[in-house]
Amino acid sequence: MPYLSVVVPIYNEQANIPQLWDRLATVLRGNFQGERDWEVIFTDDGSKDMSLKMLIDIAAQEPRVKVVEFNRNYGQHSAIFGAFAQVEGQVVVTLDADLQNPPEEIPKLVAKVEEGYDVVGGWRQGRMQNDSLLRTLPSKIVNAVTRKTTGVALNDYGCMLRAYSRDVVEAMLLCKERHSFIPALANSFAKRIAEVPVGHAERAAGDSKYNLWRLI
Questions:
Q1: Sign for the pseudo-dihedral over CA of 106, 56, 182, 36
Q2: Which regions of 11-70 does DSSP assign to beta strands (E)?
């Protein structure tokens, strides 16, 4: 039974998958083994490129990798829930495929969960240097509104690099909302919430799937 489950939604990311898997596998194999074994669940969210084939090839070579396949594009948060339904680990980490948040930060989030926190959010450092105003301004608005509505004063609700206890993931799976903002939903079930600084880089390849309207 794995200790750590890493969830990665994928949509037309064929240019990033080789580097993503190389870096992610290096981190997991180097930091988690034995009683702290790991698994990775990729959800292919209706990709139209070679992403799905590449993921299936990875899973054929690494038995700790699972691939969830969607028949069409349902969106990032639906893709995450699709993977949540398959996780077996006690700690669950979500990660974007674009490598803006380094996989190398995963052990830092897991260590914080092991201190007794139910949800640990990543707080992206260096966004002003790597993201345009069209990305950072809507994020600031979303963060401000979410802090006000949830009463949980986190700095960065938009960071995909986050860790959850298994209990919180199971509670979220019981919710039947069609559209859910996972960071806010998770906080509603958590007793202890923390945030840790994580690295942030430019997208490794390809284009962002979020335009200004989708961000808002």
A1: negative
A2: 38-44, 65-69
